[in-house]
Amino acid sequence: MNNLKVDALVIGGGIAGMQAALDLGDQGFQVALVEREPSIGGKMITLSKVFPTLDCCSCITTPKMSAVAHHPNITLFTYCEVQSIQESGAGYGVAVLQKPRYVDVNKCTGCRQCEYECPITVPSTFDRGLGAYRAIRVPFSTAVPQKAVLDIDNCLLCGKCEKICPVEAVDFNQQPETFSIEATAILLATGFELTQLGAKKEYGGGKLPNVIDPLMMERFLAPTGPYGRVLRPGDGMEPTTIAYVQCAGSRDQTQGIEYCSRVCCMYAIKQAMLISGALPMAEITIYYMDIRTFGKGYEQFYQNAKAMGVEFVRGKVASIREDEKHNPIVKVELTEEGRIIERTHDMVILSLGMIPTASPSTFGLLPSSDGFISLPAINASPSATQRPGIFVTGAAGGPMDIVDSIVTAGAAASEASAYIRNKTGIGVAQREVAYA
Amino acid sequence: MTTQQTPQSRGDMLKRLREQHAATVERTQVLLREQKRVQQEICKVIRDTPKSVPEIAAAVNMPANEVLWYVASFKKYGLLVEKGMCADYPLYQKAEEKK
Amino acid sequence: MPEKLKIGVYTCYCGGNISHTVKCEQVAKVMESQPDVVISRTNMSLCSDAGQSQIEQDIKELGVNRVVIGACAPSLHEQTFRGTVMRAGLNPFLYHHIGLREQDSWVHTCDCDGATCKAMHLMAAGIAKARHLQPLEPIRLEAEKQALVIGGGVAGLRAALDIARQGLRVVLIEKSPFIGGRMAQLEAVFPTGEKARDLLCDLVKKVAGHPNIKLYTQAEVTGVTGYVGNYGVRILQHSRGVSAEDAQALMTACKKEVPDEFNYGLSQRKVIYQPFEGCYPQLPAVDWENYQGEPISLNGGQPIVLEDAPQTFDVSVGAIVVATGFDPYEPRQGEYSYGELKEVVTLPQLIRHLALMKSGEALTWNGHPVRDVALIHCVGSREIEGVDEPHEDGQVNNYCSRVCCTASLHMAVELHEKFPALNIYELYQDIRTYGRGHEDYYRGALDGGVRFVRYSGEERPQVTPAPTGDTHPVLLRVKDSLTYNEELEIPVDLVVLAVGMVPRQIDDLVNMLKVSRGTDRFLLEVHPKLRPVETAVNGVILAGTAQGPMNIQESLSAASAAAAKVLTLLGRGKVELPPFVAAVDAEKCNGTGACVEACQYDGAIALQTFTENGKEIKRAVVTPANCVGCGACVAACPNRAIDVQGWTLSQYEAMVDAIGMNIVDLVEA
Lengths: 436, 99, 669
Description:
The structure holds 3 protein chains of 3 kinds.
Chain A: E1 4-11, H1 15-26, E2 31-34, E3 49-50, E4 55-56, H2 57-70, E5 74-77, E6 80-88, E7 91-98, H3 113-117, E8 121-124, E9 131-134, E10 136-137, E11 149-150, H4 160-164, E12 177-188, E13 192-194, E14 211-212, H5 214-221, E15 241-245, H6 264-278, E16 283-288, H7 298-307, E17 311-322, E18 328-334, E19 339-344, E20 347-350, E21 354-356, E22 390-392, H8 402-424
Parallel strand pairs in A: 1-2, 1-12, 2-5, 12-22, 14-20, 15-16, 15-20, 16-17
Antiparallel strand pairs in A: 3-4, 6-7, 7-12, 8-9, 10-11, 13-21, 17-18, 18-19
Helix pairs in contact in A: 1-2, 1-8, 5-6, 6-7
Chain B: H1 10-20, H2 22-45, H3 53-60, H4 64-76, E1 80-86, E2 89-94
Antiparallel strand pairs in B: 1-2
Chain C: E1 7-12, H1 24-32, E2 37-43, H2 49-61, E3 66-71, H3 74-87, E4 95-99, H4 101-105, H5 112-130, E5 139-142, E6 146-150, H6 154-164, E7 169-173, H7 196-208, E8 213-216, E9 219-227, E10 230-237, H8 247-253, E11 257-259, E12 268-270, E13 272-273, E14 285-286, H9 288-291, E15 296-297, E16 303-304, E17 311-317, E18 319-322, E19 326-328, E20 344-346, H10 347-356, E21 364-365, E22 368-369, E23 372-379, H11 404-418, E24 423-428, H12 438-447, E25 451-454, E26 462-465, E27 474-480, E28 486-492, E29 494-499, E30 501-503, H13 507-513, E31 540-542, H14 552-570, E32 574-577, E33 582-584, H15 594-598, E34 605-612, E35 615-622, H16 632-636, E36 642-644, H17 649-659, H18 663-668
Parallel strand pairs in C: 1-2, 1-3, 3-4, 6-7, 6-18, 7-8, 18-31, 20-29, 23-24, 23-29, 24-25
Antiparallel strand pairs in C: 5-32, 9-10, 10-17, 11-12, 13-14, 15-16, 19-30, 21-22, 26-27, 27-28, 33-36, 34-35
């Protein structure tokens, strides 16, 4: 593979990375976008509807994914991992590993015949393990690129996919390959992961089947979810009493995560509203210490949820156990009444927090005490990192929601473009955007 | 993505890969047998009458959460369909065979 | 011979948003039989890459030459699908979009059959229109490579700098005589503890020294014409009133003083003034509003009267960035006894009070030592309709102001460090220290012994004068839910109101720019995720707290994002406007002039004289750049000689006919 020279390299194809790439590409810069998964879309594409507007998530995300894929100034690399970043010339030389898909993306039409033919079914990471897909599959229905990928670690190597493929796209010859990208500026959009479901042992996450994480609930609420409806994963029951435990992975010294993850209050409230829509008889309780609906339109969203009958209980959840029917029992100290009670629910969602996906050291950067990339000029250049020409956007720079991620993407793009122009002497006038 | 310098026949390639991934192949072969067995059992249970996940679980003697995962998988690939509700549980029945 | 019509019809499920109510498959089936339809499909999410590819494929392989899409509102994705159609080689205006979500499924959730029937009518109307669609070209115009930034606070400065350093020119205007905005009034800022003024100074230096930025202080917008790429903005600038030579002498000689708004009225300043040391521009200025012709005697000489000679000038800009910022909420007279008890102040006032104190000085208020202080959160924020008294416009501030929790706790920690003996109370509803490093202030306050009292928005704390002879001047009464709703009485020396943010008074500007406000009265973006810094007026961009409460970090990000948007818009030096403007049919026009009379827009349509066959005739001519496509001229024309392109009368007639069809006829068509 030839080495590529671009103005900017965006690492991470979630909402922040896609937006930053589009903002730079629209200005006429040549951009490479590297995504480690087989499709771009990040966490956002797995969500159901998004607050505070309750737009369906794919209505917002998929057009951006498509725009990235078709943009004349953006080169997209999926299923690739950044291995190292070296200073080189006016910018950086980045070594990228292309993982083998075992499918020739130039031939594959995304027809999914291979997927239907594949005999092995594995838990789908897209559905957080609660749904299934085959060892060879198109990652999800709106994936970009809409191309199959073979999961060699779960493959029987029976060759059935290769036989059925009408365009001979399955290619067992593929090897991991390294190539390099020369970029003047780098934008880190590596995003977040949820804190571990089982991190707080008292809450039973990972052990009790009906204690789940919020991204699982997103999948249940999404139209393409594993059950096509909201069911509890323990036994397929439609739940009627559902509880959210706030700050289950944040503001907790015992877990070493002392910061607020910013999004959990809003996603819990949003999910509560969506569940009320899907299951009108459901009783939903949110156990919380502080409700942090601080964004534009968020407080009104919270008040609407209260008016809809979502129950907000101020209390510290001490532990969760289950009864013989696997119904989770929440033990909670009601801080407003000073007593401890136990309440049984059909299902409990632990409102987990955010931790960074990639270690800042991968990019030669120091982490802050919270583990996210340190921002040395937070009140002057909030996208800047310690290394000149490397900028951060989205949740890689600390927990944030989609709205804030999109704004920081614009900000990082702005900072990066100024940096590139300064480094390379590109004036605004000289670069014309070639639109398709 | 380029192909290796010396293109090998499909059979050779698969053989080489199978050697390389011998442990995976062994594991997935066991998995495949297990998945086929479970599929047959579940399909038998829901062939004539729709059943809920706990009913299927009792009939095939498996934990309900594992059964639900199979149900989700079968639903996705068209092996079964949802057929009404019984109390709080949706019922599932084997899909008609494709002609 | 005209090409044969081949219409492709697409009904989107919108991930369930439409299909939960509208039976999309039925709709698609019925559309199949409409005239000239060659393909009718449904899709789970048509805007996805797979959905778009399907449309492209149909255009290429089936020869579809008219596309009708029933999906979300056109405001969301009409642009997306124009791109799709264009990529497949079709003119982007040979596509019509029907809003099946906002206009159907979302408003008829309880009536699936009715909604489905409506969808069929709407789609049939779309198809009927599509049969009359003609290719159109967008109006392409040169764009000014210059932007106007309104507001010289941190967001405006940042936006101006980011635009300028990428080669575009910027006109930056500030209403007051000095730049820096609200940030200049802060001292140490969270979460770093840096001095606000140092940070600001760095930014101001870059802005002031930038060759592409022209700064006008004491300046405001008085008129706006034009459109994206070519706005004409009239600016009025007041005189500085003093020169470098006489400024010091005039300032010394000037006797008239007014409360200093920089210190929120805690001190007095002269009407010729500099707000703080190191301000920019350094040259003092006359506060004309308060100066009022006061004679000044220089060195005992003849009294002179300074005069304002405002200048008006016009600038041409391609885009306008609105960075007008916020005002701290001013509590109404008597709210928490504000304005009645002198011991009740706002948090911004306390920040200035501490800044004015000498280092090492004990904390006093009104000459009395402060031993106990209470900070009340959510003043002017999170107000509840029916509980809190509405403001002048009848609204309550039902939003969270985002910064006050961290600012209050930051203050508590600072007070505790400076005055360890001080008893501090924080009266709050929810602690919202959400940002990176913000939670540290909460922990710091807890560790420092700050006492937290949690009140409910339905029962706000009561601030009253203490009974005579009490040890403290003020008595706070509050029900504390942290101690099981115990009724607390807290005697304090000082009550600090953590006031929220309200937008600046910019009614005139809002009217001139024709931008919208949200229910919170802040300026409204098009869509928080799709176009978060753009307004519905093309080329008018938002930066910072004009849009809603933000802290400094967030204002900076928003400003940089706004700059990126301006660069995208103007970087090419060209803009494209939609072609939906009036077009005159020369054959039919006989120059009645009724259209010119009906037109509300300057220079959009005019009668011109042509010579034809030796005869002079008059005919209407449209200037597309000035036409907004309102259609007033269409209605006025007695000869049906004018149409709005893309929305012609024949298209409307076809649509109305389809809407009016009996559903049975539609299904059997």
